[in-house]
Each structure stands twice: as C-alpha cells, then as structure tokens.
Amino acid sequence: MLQDILLILGFGYFGGEFARRLKIPPLVAMIFTGILLGNQVTNLLSNNILQSADDLRVIAVVIILMKAGLGLDRQKLKSQGSVALRLGILPALGEAIAVSILAVIFLDFDWVTGLLLGCILGAESPAVIVPGMLRLKSLGWGVKKGIPDAILTGSALSDVLLLLIFSLLMGLLTRDGNNLGWQWLPLQFSGQIIGGVVIGWLASKILVWLIVKQKLTENTLQETIVTGCLTLFLVIISERYNFFSGYLAVMSTGFFLIEFSSPLARCLRNGFDVLWQVAQIFLFVLLGATIPLNVLGSSFGKGLIIIILGTLIGRMAGWYLSTWKSNWNQKEKLFLLAGNSAKATVQAAIASIPLAQGITGGEEILAIAALSILVTAPLGAWAIPTFAPLLLTKGEVDPTKVSVDDHVILLSAIDDSPLTTPVLTKTAEIARRSNAEVIVLHIIDDSQNNNLENLKEKITTLLADINYQLLIVEGVITEEILRVSQEFRVKEIIMGKRGHKNWHDILIGSVSQTVLESSPIPVIIIEQ
User: Fold this and answer.
1) Whole-number average pLDDT of the chain
2) By three-state DSSP, how is residue 358 classified?
3) C-alpha 134, offset from chain centre
4) What pLDDT sits at residue 450?
5) The predicted structure's pLDDT at residue 462
6) How distant, in Å, are the alpha carbons of 278, 343, 365, 481 from that of 301?
7) Which one of 7, 192, 339, 402 has the minimum C-beta count within 10 Å?
8) Helix locations, 213-361, DSSP H
C-alpha cells in the first residue's frame, strides 16, 4: 500500500506539473498517469489500492464539495435563484432523455436501460466544475451576475436528481422490492434535497459550537480535520439511511458556515484548499487506473456520437430553458457549453454498477461512461479558463467567498544605522506569517557610511529562512522607495524613522513622512 501511495503521489504530482507547464490541464496528465500505472498497462498498482478507489473517491468528493459550499455567495444565489434551480434540473434531464433515445437507436437498448445510461452520462463532475468555478470567482469572471454560483448550485442539484433516478431504475431492473416506484420520485427527490439542506444547517451549527464557542481546536489544521470528519460522517450516514443527500449536506454545511461564522469559513477555505491539492491527485490517478480500456473499442464510435449529440441536443435545450427570460446575455449562455459539461467523478463511481448487477448492456454502459470521462473531463478543465475571458464579464472579487491566490511581496527599506536590525526583524516576522517574499532595498547615499559587508551579514542572519532579494541602488531615497515598490508590486513597505534630535535625523524623519504621504501602498514605520 505504501508503494502504491508513493507511485500515485509522485507520478501524479510531477505529471500534473509537467502538463501545467505545457498549458495543459493537470488532470489530463493525472488520468493518463493512472492508465499507465493501472493493471491494463504496467500493473504497478496493487489490487488493494484499486479496491479502495471508491472510498478514496468519496473522500475527494467530500473535500471538493466542501470547497464549493465555502465558496457560494448567498446574495448572488438570491439574484439567480430560479436560474440555479432550473440548471439543477433541466440540462441533466434533457441530456438523460436525449441519451436514452440515442441508446435505443444505436445500441438497441430498451427504454429503461437507455435511461439508465442517460442518468450516468447526464451527471456533472464536481471534481472538474467546482475548481473551475471557484477559480473564476477568484479572478472575478461572471461574478457580477453570480454565474459561477448558479453553475455550482445547479451542478450539485442535478447530480442528486440523477442519482435518485439511477437508484430507482436499478431497483426496477433488479426487481428490488424496497424500491418505491416512479410515482414516488418527486417525493424522494424533494426529501433528499430538503433533508440535505437541513442536515447541512445542523452540521454547521455543531461546528460553530465546537470550534468557535467551545474552542475545541487550536489552529486551521485541527479545524479542517474536525470539519472533514463530520462531513464525511454525513455521507456515510446518508448511504446507510437514505433520507437525505449526503453530498448536498456537505455543500450546505460549507454554505451555512459562511453565514454563521465568516472567520471560521475563511480558515476552513484555506485548509480544504490544501487538502484538495493531495485529494485531486488520488482522485484522477485512480480514475485513470480504473477506466476499462479493453471495452472501449467496440463501442467507441457509437459512444462518441451519443456523448456529442446528448450534449448538443438534450443538454443545450436544458440550458436554453434554464436561462430563458434571465439577465444572462448570449455569450454567458454559450459559456455553459464550456463550464457545465464535464463528466468524471459520478461516472467513475456508478458506471460499473449495472455490469456488476448483471444488467444487459452493462459493458457498453461502462465503456461509454469511461469514454465520456476521457473526452469531457480534460476538455472541460481546458475550456472553463479558456472561454471565461471571452464570454464572461469581469467583476470585483469578493475575498470573503474565495481564497485569492495572491503572491505577497514586501519591501524592506534599510540604511546602515541601528534601525536596520529592528526593521529587518519586523519584516521577517510579517513575511513568516504571510509566506511572503522580501525585497531588501538599500539606497546609497553620500551622507551614510554604506558599510555593505556589515549590512549583508545582518540581512543573511535575520532573513535566513525568508526568500529575499537584495537591491542596492543610487538615487533620491524617497523616489527610489516609491519606484521599487511599484515595479515589484509590493503589498507593504517596512522602513525606519529616528527621533528628531539633529538635522540629519530630521532629514531621515522627513523621508519616512514623505513615503507615508505619497505611497498608495501601506507603510509600516519602525521608530528608534
């Protein structure tokens, strides 16, 4: 098992980074890494890890749905509520119905089996859509109209709906006596949705009570662990007692945490961002390792036609009806083709069930589902960031709803005086808290001794664990500080100011005062 973990993390990470440098979505490399490591090519992964793939996928999905919930904006959802609800029903049902008709025509399936395939292909992938939409929110694309929020919510609802219909169809095909039948589908769907939201509300209340009021945790890592365990428990309970949607409860938990405790939500957002960096490697590598390449050949052509037509006919009809009479323009509606079509996680989780249950056509269902992953997951991961700048309008980013990945650079302006040590000490303290890079600026001035060797020794000692760059320039002190701060786009300037004891000190004080008054960037003054 340890060898499997090493292979997955090592090859998955470096494959993803190699793809990123080639401007290719990292998940593409991770999927193909899984194919190469799996038992259909090199057979380097053991059966133990492959048998655990479903459980590991559940953990990854919980993490990504928690990220989605923590990134939702209530105000934007309120303005787009009807669109989000329609996006959760109409595109998925449209694609499922279109795929079922095509399956009857091209694969000679009966109507129930065809709809079973439709439910599998119609489900959307949170593993592709959630990171993509959160990335758009962090950059501001479509945020003014709440387009990423509507897609995120609609995607979660559509998966709940199709999984319910899938379970019902499996019951009919296997003659499950516990199945309630078609007439109860609306009640089941409503119960799953309402139950998921209520349980998510309750879970968020519990987390706030434990973490904020009782102070059960001491840092972000512990808060993330407690939250992750509770949300994973919700999914496990929902699978045993099918009265609510566990995945929707996870997403709802994150959403309500923003309302009940924004500081906790911000910390958890950062914690789950870190977890996702590891979880996505396992998710996509194991996805590739379990794709049945041997059954793709005979169904490739027909399966590709079904996937394309199902999206272009069924899903696009649903998109049109979902955004009808909304404030979305034509470009924003067209973006749904890029932002709302990817398949991966749900298909990997349920596509093999019909074959395992001995349902006629199970091999074709598994093959076409695998093909949909290989085609749409990489395409969706590429299309979302590519077409967003072309089709969406950029708005103001709300840092309270997303983690903004912003590299922090500090400017530490020093001279050869006793103030150098406290300035560098404060710079190092701030840099460690924000994992920042430091620009150390020394301006050569004839009025100073400019003992550079002594200066460099202090910098090396005090910034030993900080990523820094030393700049030594000539010029007017205030002008150079302002110029360098703008050139490197620094976030803060740290500099010293001495007491006004003589004319030289008055000059130094005037420098800090001038920078403080002239700089659009925050300035921290360290006094002697």
Assistant:
1) 86
2) coil
3) 6
4) 61
5) 92
6) 35, 18, 14, 64
7) 7
8) 220-240, 246-260, 262-290, 300-309, 316-322, 330-339, 345-350, 353-356
Q: Quick one: CA dihedral 300, 39, 345, 378, positive or negative?
A: negative
pLDDT at position 26 = 87
| Rounded Cα–Cα distance for residues 241 and 204 (Å) | 20
pLDDT at residue number 1: 80
Q: What is the Cα–Cα distance from 236 to 267, expressed in whole angstroms?
A: 25
CB atoms within 10 A of CB 54: 14
Query: What is the three-class DSSP state of 410?
Result: strand
**Predicted structure pTM score:** 0.76
- Tell me the β-bridge partners of 282: none
Instruction: Check residue 435 and give left, alpha or beta (phi > 0: left; psi -120 to 50: alpha).
Output: left
Question: Torsion-angle region of residue 18: left (phi > 0), alpha (psi -120 to 50) or beta?
Answer: alpha
pLDDT number for residue 370? 84
Three-state DSSP state, 216: coil
Q: Give how far the C-alpha of residue 292 lies from the chain's centroid of Cα atoms, to the nearest Å.
A: 27
In this structure, what token pair is assigned to residue 142? Answer: 């479509």
Per the listing, tokens 């020794």 go with 457
Confirm if 200 and 251 have CB atoms less than 8 A apart: yes
* Strand, helix or coil for residue 349: helix
Give Cα separations from 230 to 206, 243, 411 (angstroms).
Answer: 9, 18, 42
Q: How many CA atoms lie within 13 A of 108 on its CB side?
A: 2
What is the secondary structure of 504-527 as a DSSP string?
HHHHHHHHHHHHHHH-SS-EEEEE
- The answer to whether residues 320 and 47 touch, using CB atoms and an 8 Å cutoff, is no
Q: What is the pLDDT of residues 136-164, one digit of tens each?
A: 988 899 988 889 989 988 888 888 888 87
What pLDDT does 331 receive? 93
Q: What are phi and psi of 526, to 5 degrees?
A: -105, 115
Starting at the earlier edge strand, list the strands of the sheet with 468-474.
468-474, 437-444, 409-414, 492-497, 523-527
- The pLDDT value recorded for residue 185 is 63
Nearest to 133 by CA among 151, 145, 159: 151
